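Handout, section B. The chain below has 231 residues.
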Amino acid sequence: MKPVAIFRHSPGEGPGYFATFLDSHSIPHQLICIDQGDAVPARTGGYSGLCFMGGPMSVNDPLPWIPPVSNLIRLAVAGGQPVIGHCLGGQLMAKALGGTISRNPVKEIGWGEVTATGAVPEWLGDIAGFEAFHWHGETFTLPPGATRILESVHCANQGFVLGPHLGLQCHVEMTEAMIRLWNRQWAEESAIASASVQTPEQMYQRMDERIDAMRIAANRLYTHWLAGLQP
């Protein structure tokens, strides 16, 4: 099978559990480090699917790699190669496919419940909701033809599907090491603890239990996404 291309946009926002999941299913993958100047491929033919990770930048920033990434997403969708995006990655997908990116009413940082809408049930099965990890201040609108599958009280669009493609606002790929690394920048967010923003100390409460529960949902989402990979 051709590898899954994983696009990293920031050194601290790698594939995390997504890569572990691919390894457990013997799916090859190739990391493309946009943050280190790796070129965006002009074509999708060398990959079975595309994955886009998070990052602190905005999809609306005038960054030179965003137009070619957007074009690559459109090429993959046109060719039926599955695309998955986490947070910034989901926003990249949404914008490339006709949605818009704007400021969310509040920042979401830390653990927060997301609810399954019940639409397209094959993605989550009987999972009605779960605690996901969040770290974002912007959000996306649904691109034309997409269906919302996850929502939360603080952000209406937590996940959408469009055929075999999955765009997520939340971070289901998190590991303990990633959470601790990101919290080194918590103060730089200038955020005040609230109903939608947790302190690092709050994030560490029941962390193993929360990660294990989120993995159940991640496994469902990732398993269905894998079914669309092109050999």
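Note. The helical segments are 17-24, 66-79, 88-96, 176-182, 200-204, 207-226. Compare this with the example in section A.
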